[in-house]
């Protein structure tokens, strides 16, 4: 059997025809600076070819021929992978419980051994479907399993001051049968539709509300209830957000906790069936770590031993991969990229697969240093079972644990894509041309702050009595005018304190002075018990999170940052454009410049079986996404497609040369800022679904920095170093320090000890996750936290060279 998987001539994206060897049955790490080509090698080459061969072997052939972006790959085995991308679930109601199958096991357990209240026991046997809110048998008939109900208010619908004809807001114009019956009703009862609702007599109002048999008119209230059911059903199928209200033909309908199921989403049989005094909803709302302890303690007294053993096995695997802080009821689309990867990893462990190739994208993302050790052991156990594990990774301890290292570079984008090194850690340490090796060999010292800014006790942002989620009446003061790190193990309460308590309170208090890119509905309602003081010291609060940028399929960094508007304006002023009458819209795929066949995407999707899809280049535009007219105009010998294919670093040079026809100061400023936050490698036209959470956050940060907000601002960041190499992290720390030096405050939730060692002040949550967390266990300067015996972070701070 071949000892190595051999990849020859890999040339997709920025890879420069490289040859790589990956040892079988070993743990291999692919590293390098951000944008050096790691994902192109691991996912777009290794994984994609493994998937293609499997589909061919299984009889599910590609519908069209695809051109491989490599010369040859040998000794390839079946390949599975999970990328750290913004994952768009086909089923927005998927939860940790449904994905892990623990939810199914609990449903079986309740169906077989649940104790029913006598009032709701009809003597018929229960099936697992009665305990699944996505099942017709199990869902609440009122809210259709959502736990939320859109409550109609008659006074809102039948506003007495509006004309009768306006009640249906144009719906009647689109539906002839409703319109005919409505007109017949009005004629029969001599009603002038221009009159207001309030002019109707009590008798006519009753008919108008509840219907008239003679005319066939169903009545306004009956009509809106029917429409509500339709809209609610559609809402259930396509939406995962618990919206505060929905628009029902122009009428705002409030969303409330369903009164029938009390928010559980389940039917009456499930609500009134228990095991050990708990309903299935109560089990699903427990933290996974708590649930494991419960079943471990009760396994000898509970019925269904085989089922419970299987539940314990799955829960233990999820705890081992660092998911102890999640509940089974947590929706999958709300998980971070790292959490999703570990959820999939848990299922692989349970399946006990062997002879597979597993490909992971920074699996340590979102994990505390203490939790990474367990994850590394799990990866090594996968290898010991006879699997090959390949991980794109920047984490130092993970790299050191690898059997084999592949380093790509030397830099990002067009300046990367070369194989710098492949071999053992010992050999890698002496690789002088690598950007990563010197950090591991300590030839390049990790930056750490030496002098900490003194705290101004008169300028503090204070949170008092925070009790949301697992927070235990937390009161803490955040010093302003410095870099403040929020640390702690997964589920310790970091996000609950900052993003779920502080941010909603600041939104309530600062109103328009809080800048948040997403919908207001994404910010939770403020915790009624908590209070926040000290806002008089804040000019503006800017929340920069990891949620996706852009809303459409053709969104990209250039459209999000406003670069596209400037570029197409430049193209519209070129002589060829003026001569042919091409306006700016010709140079955008979202408008008249987009290919009609693929709607500006440059490709078409084809289903190839087993839930898999492939992207095939559009034959009309040959993958450009543009019409021919848009491509006929050039700027410095580059057309619009050429420019959108440039990396940020390339484009910064292209638009930054003052002697060039392409020079544009505003474009150059945005591009230079993107480079400063470590995003020089992404292309201007890169589709936003391929942008990771960490990348999305840094792009948002760059956009905000270009606004020159001045001093007195508070920036709230969520693990901004996600996906960054050692050198890129150093540059980001420098940028954050510059913001602080300019008189601003940085509040950063982070696990990276290098970032935390560069903070002026640290607040550490813990000591554990879930029910074991929710306390402030240490606070102070990095040196003070490092010396605090209660701190879990402390020993890792000491390892950073100070």
TrEMBL record:
InterPro entries: ABC_transporter-like_ATP-bd, ABC_transporter-like_CS, P-loop_NTPase
One GO term (biological process): DNA repair
Keyword DNA damage: yes
Coiled coil regions, renumbered to chain: none
Family label: Belongs to the ABC transporter superfamily. UvrA family.
Pfam families: ABC_tran
Name recorded for this polypeptide: UvrABC system protein A
Residues of the ABC transporter domain: 452-792
Keywords recorded for this protein, A-Z: ATP-binding, Cytoplasm, DNA damage, DNA excision, DNA repair, DNA-binding, Excision nuclease, Nucleotide-binding, Repeat
UniProt keyword annotation of GTP-binding present: no
One GO CC term on file: cytoplasm
GO molecular function: ATP binding; ATP hydrolysis activity; DNA binding; nuclease activity
Location in the cell: Cytoplasm
Domain of life, source organism: Bacteria
């Amino acid at each position: 059997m071949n000892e190595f998987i051999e990849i020859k001539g890999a040339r997709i994206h920025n890879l420069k025809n490289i040859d790589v060897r990956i040892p079988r049955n070993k743990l291999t790490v692919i590293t390098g600076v951000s944008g050096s080509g790691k994902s192109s090698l691991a996912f777009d080459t290794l994984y994609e070819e493994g998937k293609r061969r499997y589909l061919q072997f299984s009889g599910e052939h590609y519908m069209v021929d695809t051109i491989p972006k490599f010369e040859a790959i040998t000794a390839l085995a079946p390949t599975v992978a999970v990328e750290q991308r913004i994952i768009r679930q086909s089923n927005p109601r998927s939860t940790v419980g449904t994905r892990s199958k623990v939810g199914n096991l609990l449903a079986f357990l309740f169906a077989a051994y649940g104790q029913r209240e006598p009032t709701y026991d009809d003597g018929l046997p229960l099936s697992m479907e009665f305990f699944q809110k996505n099942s017709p048998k199990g869902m609440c008939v009122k809210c259709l399993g959502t736990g939320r109900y859109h409550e109609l208010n008659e006074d809102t619908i039948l506003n007495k001051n509006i004309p009768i004809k306006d009640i249906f807001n144009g719906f009647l114009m689109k539906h002839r049968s409703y319109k005919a019956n409505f007109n017949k009703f009005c004629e029969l009862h001599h009603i002038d539709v221009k009159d207001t609702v309030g002019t109707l007599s009590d008798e006519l109002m009753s008919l108008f509300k509840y219907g008239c048999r003679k005319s066939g008119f169903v009545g306004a209230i009956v009509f809106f209830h029917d429409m509500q059911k339709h809209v609610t059903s559609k809402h259930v199928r396509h939406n995962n957000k618990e919206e505060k209200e929905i628009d029902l033909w122009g009428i705002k309908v409030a969303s409330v906790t369903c009164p029938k199921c009390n928010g559980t989403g389940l039917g009456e049989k499930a609500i009134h069936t228990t095991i050990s005094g708990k309903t299935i909803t109560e089990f699903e709302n427990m933290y996974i770590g708590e649930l494991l302890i419960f079943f471990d303690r009760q396994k000898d007294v509970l019925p269904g031993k085989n089922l419970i053993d299987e539940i314990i096995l799955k829960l233990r695997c999820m705890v081992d991969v660092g998911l102890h802080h999640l509940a089974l009821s947590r929706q999958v689309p709300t998980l971070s990229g790292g959490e999703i990867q570990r959820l999939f990893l848990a299922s692989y462990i349970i399946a006990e697969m062997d002879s597979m190739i597993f490909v992971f994208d920074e699996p340590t993302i979102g994990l505390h240093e203490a939790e990474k050790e367990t994850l590394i052991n799990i990866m090594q156990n996968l290898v010991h079972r006879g699997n090959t594990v390949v991980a794109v990774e920047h984490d130092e301890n993970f790299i050191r644990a690898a059997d084999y290292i592949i380093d790509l570079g030397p830099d990002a984008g067009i300046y990367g894509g070369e194989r710098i090194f492949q071999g053992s850690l010992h050999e890698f340490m002496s690789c002088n041309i690598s950007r990563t090796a010197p950090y591991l060999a300590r030839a390049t010292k990790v930056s750490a702050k030496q002098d900490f800014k003194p705290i101004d006790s008169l300028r503090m942002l204070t949170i008092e009595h925070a009790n949301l989620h697992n927070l235990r009446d937390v009161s803490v003061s955040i010093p302003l005018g410095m870099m403040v790190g929020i640390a702690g193990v997964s589920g310790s309460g970091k996000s609950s304190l900052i993003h779920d308590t502080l941010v909603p309170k600041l939104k309530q208090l600062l109103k328009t002075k809080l800048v948040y890119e997403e919908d207001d509905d994404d910010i939770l309602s403020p915790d009624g018990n908590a209070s926040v003081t000290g806002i008089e010291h804040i000019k503006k609060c800017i929340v920069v999170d990891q949620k996706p940028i852009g809303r459409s399929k053709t969104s990209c960094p250039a459209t999000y940052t406003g670069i596209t508007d400037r570029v197409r304006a430049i193209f519209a002023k070129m002589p060829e454009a003026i001569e042919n009458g091409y306006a700016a819209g010709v140079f955008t795929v979202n408008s008249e410049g987009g290919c009609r066949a693929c709607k500006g995407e440059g490709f078409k999707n084809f289903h190839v079986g087993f839930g898999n899809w492939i992207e095939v280049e559009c034959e009309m535009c040959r993958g450009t996404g543009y019409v021919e007219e848009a491509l006929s105009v050039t700027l410095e010998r580059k057309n619009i497609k050429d420019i959108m294919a440039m990396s940020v670093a390339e484009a910064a040079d292209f638009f930054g040369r003052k002697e060039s026809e392409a020079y544009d100061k505003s474009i150059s400023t945005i591009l230079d800022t993107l480079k400063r936050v470590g995003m020089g490698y992404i292309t201007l036209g890169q589709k936003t679904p391929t942008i990771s959470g960490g990348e999305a956050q840094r792009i948002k940060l760059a956009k905000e920095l270009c606004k020159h907000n001045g001093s007195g601002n508070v920036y709230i960041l969520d693990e901004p170093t996600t996906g960054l190499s050692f050198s890129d992290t150093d540059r980001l720390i420098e940028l954050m320090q510059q913001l602080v030096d300019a008189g601003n405050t940085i509040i950063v939730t982070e696990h990276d000890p290098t970032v935390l060692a560069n903070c002026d002040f640290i607040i550490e949550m813990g000591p554990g996750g879930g029910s074991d967390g929710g306390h402030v266990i240490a606070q102070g300067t990095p040196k003070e936290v490092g010396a605090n015996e209660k701190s879990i972070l402390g020993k890792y701070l000491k390892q950073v060279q100070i």
